[in-house]
Specification:
Helix content is about 45%, strand content about 10%. By secondary structure, the chain is α/β, with parallel strands linked by helices.
Length: about 290
């Protein structure tokens, strides 16, 4: 049995960028990998993945029963793969009604957890989901945050418990019971060589600096944006009001996020922001 490596993050924190790098690193080709054929997909919450491996359609089950079956879905996947599997996940690492982790430790090789300044996450997530900034900040600060919102029609993804931004971080970093490597989005921007070396080692891949540098060159934000403009990106939310690869920089929140909404995030998420270097000792944002 091979192992699953979880590529975990709160939405819009750099997960897709890391997957683009990983795909280019694994392929080690002469041209950039197709952004519509990335490793690490489909996402762990994909409805069709659940339906295939559970042997029953999620649309026929209540949410609690879906959550109870998900650990065994991933165990089934691990039993049938012939190579390590890299799976993107935005769910928080929570327990189901049977007291079991959604993401079972026994089939896990490791976790790459990508973290990003929640002030920037709020702006990027709002554009991605077609929500207002106010609505997005409320989701980010809600201890019971869930996406996608419940509707009468089944979505392509199963409901995902995000918790709050801080709760999401804690669920993986402190409570998952797994080997977790944390990489900050801001370090991926400022110190790409060392940050993406950490990505490679977190996934137990043999590190090669030449391959890393080539994969980094093929994963530049401008190159990804150019691909999306030319061919589209199938992971872009239908309600999005901007490109998926929109800006890719730190500190953009200062132009878009009002003082009141920023203060709400700082006051409710400050403990974890300070722990990971997003807030200084005076309570001021760092980035």
């Amino acid at each position: 049995m091979n192992r699953i490596y979880w590529l975990a993050s709160y939405p819009k924190s750099g997960n897709t960028w890391a997957r683009t790098f990983l795909t280019n690193y694994l392929i080690d080709g002469e041209a950039p990998a197709d952004i519509n054929r990335l490793r690490g997909g489909p996402i762990a919450s994909a409805r069709d993945v659940f339906d295939r491996w559970a042997g029953v359609e999620a649309s026929d089950l209540p949410a609690a029963e879906i959550a109870n079956l998900r650990p065994d879905v991933y165990r089934q996947m691990a039993r049938h793969i012939e190579h390590p599997l890299y799976i993107k996940v935005h769910d928080a690492c929570t327990q189901n009604s049977e007291g079991l982790k959604l993401f079972p430790v026994d089939v896990t090789g490791g976790v790459l957890y990508i973290i990003r300044n929640p002030l920037d996450v709020a702006v990027s997530f709002a554009h991605h989901g077609g929500r207002t900034l106010q609505q997005t900040v409320e989701v980010l600060c809600n201890p019971e945050g869930v996406v996608p919102e419940l509707s009468d029609r089944p979505a392509a993804q199963l409901p995902q418990s995000l918790l709050s931004w801080s709760g999401h971080v804690r669920s993986w970093v402190d409570r998952s019971g797994m080997r977790v490597t944390v990489v900050r989005f801001e370090d991926m921007l400022a110190r790409p060589e060392s940050s993406f070396e950490s990505v490679v080692r977190a996934l137990d891949l043999e590190f090669d600096s030449r391959r890393r540098d080539r994969a980094l060159a093929f994963s530049r934000f401008e190159a990804l944006q150019d691909q999306e403009l030319r061919a589209g990106f199938r992971e872009r939310h239908m309600g999005a009001d901007a490109l998926f690869f929109r800006e890719g920089r730190a500190g953009a929140w200062r132009l878009d996020l009002g003082a009141e909404m920023a203060a709400r995030i700082l006051s409710t998420q400050g403990e974890i922001m300070r722990r990971f270097g997003y807030m200084d000792a005076r309570g001021e944002p760092v980035f």
